[in-house]
Design brief:
Strand content of chain A: under 5%
Number of helices of chain B: 3
Helix content of chain B: over 70%
Number of domains of chain B: 1
Number of strands of chain A: 2
Largest sheet of chain B: none
Number of strands of chain B: 0
Shape of chain A: globular
Strand content of chain B: under 5%
Radius of gyration of chain A: 22 Å
Distance between the termini of chain B: 53 Å
Distance between the termini of chain A: 56 Å
Structural class of chain B: mainly alpha
Oligomer: heterodimer
Helix content of chain A: 55-70%
Chain lengths: 312, 85
Amino acid sequence: MILFDGVLALLIVVLAWRCVTAGDLYLGIVVFIVMGLMLALSWARLDAPDLALAEAAIGAGLLGVLLLSTWRALPGHRRQDRDHPPARKAVRWLAGVASVAFGLVMAALLHALQPDEDAAGALALGRLTEAGVEQPVTAVLLNFRSYDTLLEMGVLLMALIGALLARTPLAPYGAATDDGTDSPLIPVLATTFTPLLLLVGAFLVWAGAYGPGGAFQGGAVLGGAGVVLVLCNRLQGAPEAGILLRLLLVLGVKVFILAGLLMLPLEGAFMAYPPGLTYPIMIAIEFCLATSIAVSLLLLFTGTHGVRVPER
Amino acid sequence: MTGLAVLAALALVIFFGLGLLRIHLGPTDADRILSIQLSGTTTVAILLLLSVIVDMPALLYVALIFVLFAAVIAIAFVRNPKGGA
């Protein structure tokens, strides 16, 4: 197994090196996606299946698709990024040496770190039975540390608003096409893979209560279903968001806050859930969060304020 | 049994490295997208083996996600989101 880990680590370093030094935009994107595969494997080897799931769905999957689509949308798929000439050799060496030094210092510091007996992680694991779900990561995200997750949802919403204000849409209000090769596979892929992605996404959200999975991973897969629909022309960007879409966008934050406030008179603290009801409340919150995450990611992909079904 | 699985995983990760040559050499964009698909399939195989080796069934979910997103990446390669080409 040591040999396996060694080859894995070597491949990741080589891929990272190629990803940064590739002169060709497309080559850089391809190497980035492949590096995502290797990173997911390394998280699996580090006993962190939750992170492997997140890396697979967001890092390699959705982000790879976004980068590829951006490259497709560039005028004439520019081979080289000529607007930005490579930095001077001295600068590159300086950046390389500084990065390696930073990595070594961080590795030394983290290696020297010894966890305390009564650290937060040990406390949370010890009181897992009170959390309502069996999975430690979900328990921390949605119960012990729910404030933080609520604010993260706010951050995602702000990121979406900022991105929509700042960038030009990737999928403007026209239909997606493929250059000349009008493949008959596209409708088949759309009708086969969208339901599969929706099913697996919903399953991952639900699985978060028992094992690895959860709102973020599941939401990313659900968002992937929306991306397939956009690319296969079953959905397209719209300049305005309908009221339903806006409601879905804020659903997660709204339900999270409401659940916290409604229990306030019962439990005497914001976001404290009554013992018997913890599980249903957390599952409901989790599905609402996943829906909002999926819609946010889809709009981040299209770069438009809304999406609509194209007229036929 | 586990020893055999470890050997197979090791062989697969080495093949993965050899598959990277196709990404490096190219020469066309389609070659490179196909080598992503190859790497994805290899990764799925490694994950399936790892889930047996370290007894972590959750790795099957990761494999499932990779299978699904491999198709999405192939679609993203052939479709122009902007339209009009």
